[in-house]
Amino acid sequence: MIAFLGIFATFLLLGIPISLALGVGGLAYLWLSGNGMLVVAMPQRMLQGIDQFVLLTIPLFLLAGNLMNLGGLSGRMIGFANALVGHFRGGLSLVTVLASTLFAGISGSAIAQASAIGSFMIPAMARQGIPAAYGAALVAMSAVIDPLIPPSITMIIFGVLSGASIGQMFIAGIVPGLILGASLLGYAWWKAAKNNYPRMPRIPWNERGVSLVAAIPALMLPVIIVGGVKTGIFTVTESAAVAVAYALLVGLMHRELSWDKIWQALVTTAIATSGLLFILAMANIVAFVLTIQQVPASFAEMLLGVSDNKLVILLMINIMLLVLGKFLEPITVMIVTMPILLKVADVIDMDLVQFGVMVTLNVVIGMVTPPVGVCLFVVCAISGQSLGAVSREVIPMFLICLGLLALIALVPAVTLWLPNFWAPQL
Q1: Least confident stretch, 70-79, 94-103, 119-128
Q2: What angle do CA 285, 288, 293 make, to 5 degrees?
Q3: Residue 13 has pLDDT above 80, yes or no
Q4: How far, in Å, CA of 262 to CA of 127, rounded?
Q5: Residue 128, number of CB atoms within 10 A of its CB
Q6: Which residues of 300-335 are buried (b: 16+ CB within 10 A; e: fewer)?
Q7: What is the mean pLDDT of the chain?
Q8: CA-CA-CA-CA dihedral for 15, 17, 23, 29, to nearest 10
Q9: Are 236 and 54 contacting, i.e. CB atoms less than 8 angstroms apart?
Q10: For the segment 266-288, what is each residue's pLDDT rounded down to a tens digit?
């Protein structure tokens, strides 16, 4: 296995894309280890990795988010958030967190959220007198909320790889997502008070009502998705198609979706989907290599050899995921480690839904930590700030995420109370 890791690291240093480094590294390892005959079966393995009906949810949820964004609904949510908290000290920083929490029910992608919210809020915060590096860090960290609140592309991938109920994971992520949103909102309020950031004028109550009415169509999307799946009206996959139809209908009714914008949404979705599915296909080769080399069983035995204490094992798993997340994107981390993770979850007898939410938060935190935090690069490009300056502002919020991660891992009710309360068989 060390040979595969060496090949993979070499390809990365040569600048080869991660997806190719995974797939070619796996093939090279099979050849060098004397299993060359298995190489001819790899195309079939790649197709098997993406030939799953539930994966249709990925392009559909991405398309729904793109249609909602191009249809102007993200702007309406920012307006609604501004009407609620914009008049507090450092109001736009609070608006950023609240808008990100609301937007999380639409996009399903942390990168999409960081781009959509950041392009509008980072310059606006800078004009209000809020440091651009802090504003960029706040946008990046608020994007972590997105994969926790349905629809979540990361949870869909975990469900596909593990067999966990995607519907239950959607519901299980709501409470942690709201906790993170409230925690970041509290931090932004404290930061604004400490640094005496300026206030914005208070918006009259009648205008707040108008902004609420304008935002209702966007706010209803996660309600439709979760409610429809929970009541059995449609499956998770069908809910993605319903989300697209709803986003298209709302955009056309508000006359903000033109044919050019619809085409733009389709093209953007096709490009993003093809990239995700290619990573899934190539990483399936790695999963096969890990399986034939019995790495999951060996790793589980190694963990148990260190300690049989559940808390110690959870700590080692979380550290491993956090470190990997600093260098690899979330889907790659999950695919590479999933055989190991499932073995460990079985050994420590941890509920798979709770385990999945913990893994989701782990790998997404990596998107806002250097050196390869994708969301950090997005907000740095928007704000014009250096990676170092933004990373320094991220540190306190990173600690908040670690606190939530510990809460999810140690208190099952944080993730399982809501699914058990509704008691759906999803």
Answers
A1: 70-79
A2: 130
A3: no
A4: 32
A5: 18
A6: beebeeeeeeeeebbeebbebbbebbbbbbbbbbbb
A7: 80
A8: 10
A9: yes
A10: 898 888 778 777 777 776 777 67
